[in-house]
Amino acid sequence: MSQFTGGTFGNYSRLWLIITGAILLGVGAIMAITLGNIPYAGTAMLMTGGFMALVGIALIIIGVVVGQRAASTDALLTSGTPATAQITGITQTGMYFNEQPQIKMQLLVALPGQTPYAAQHTEIVPLMLLGRLTSGSPLQVRVYPMNLNRIAVDWGASGFGGGAMASAMGGPAPTTSAPAAGQLPTTGAMLAGAGSAGAAGMDESLAQVQAALASSGMAAAAPFQTAQQGSYTVEQLRAYLRQNGKDASATIDTLNDSGKDVGDEHLYTMGMTLKIPGQPDKKLPQSAAMVPQAKMHRLFQGMTVPVKYEATNPDLLMLDWEKI
């Protein structure tokens, strides 16, 4: 999905349910009409066809209802009152759609000029976003003015909408072309230290990074969301930032070794504070960090490093080790 919203799964379900229901309705009707008069078997064909048609009608009705709810959510995201919500509790309901879990969130919602209030929100959320929901960062939400318990999470404004992608790249000169600006991720999820120019690299894909992160069991934001973004390599994003990135610095607040290598680089998780001249410091989420093995000995918690960041998405940045 290119842009995840609260209505994404509903819109997808609506289409699937209506198409499946229409097929069952058509097949059932044809079976009942054409085979219902067969001697001895006609009654069975008529009952079977009628049952299939009824199931098809039920699926179409469910699809319409699901679609209306998704449209209502999308409308709330457009016209609802902006607010922030802090997650105070989160549980899975046990329900899944397309292997993605439904979660129940206990929220403390803060509307401008009003006392924060407790609310509950249930929604199907992509599996790779669950780790970020427990980070403590507030969610941006929209609230229906006539019913404050009707809430839609604005995942895009909360930093989850596009693919959760790399937030720091660096390293050897790329051998593959960089993605265009319009193809870049909209949120940060990976930090990578840069090696020396001209050093050999394995051109690790973000899918490989995500697999290593998952096997390590360490909590960090997912490096990508869509299949297309998973095929990007660390080198492609580094190439883009070398050409288009803006200069800044960042302090390493937390540093954890995963014990995993991906290609010729080592996987850490880091939390960083980005320092852009003339702007407030920005705390970045705990993220996967790809560091060339030759630079591992240079890392320590509390150090400040020069970086290049993407102007429209400061979470996407590259540690520039060559300047240290």
Q: Taking all residues together, what is the mean pLDDT?
A: 76
The figure for the number of domains is: 3
The largest β sheet comes out as: 8 strands, mixed
Instruction: Provide the succession of SSEs.
Output: HHEEEHEEEEHHHEEEEEE
Q: How much of the sequence is in beta strands?
A: 25-35%
Distance between the termini: 39 Å
Stretches with pLDDT under 50, minimum 5 residues: 161-178, 186-190, 192-202
Morphology: elongated
Furnish the topology, listing elements before pairings:
Layout: H1 8-35, H2 42-79, E1 81-97, E2 100-110, E3 117-124, H3 130-133, E4 139-144, E5 147-153, E6 164-166, E7 187-192, H4 206-216, H5 227-230, H6 234-244, E8 246-262, E9 265-275, E10 282-283, E11 287-292, E12 304-310, E13 313-319
Parallel strand pairs: 6-7, 7-11
Antiparallel strand pairs: 1-2, 1-4, 2-3, 4-5, 8-9, 8-12, 9-10, 9-11, 12-13
Helix pairs in contact: 1-2
Walkthrough of the structure:
This protein has 324 residues and is of the alpha+beta class. The chain has 3 domains: 71 residues; 74 residues; 160 residues, no CATH class. Helices cover 30% and strands 33% of the residues. It is built from 6 helices and 13 strands. Strands 6, 7, 8, 9, 10, 11, 12 and 13 form an 8-stranded mixed β-sheet that branches. It has a 5-stranded antiparallel β-sheet with strand order 3-2-1-4-5, with helices on one face. α1 runs antiparallel to α2.
Short structural description:
The chain has 324 residues and is an alpha+beta fold. The chain has 3 domains: 8-78; 80-153; 164-323, no CATH class.
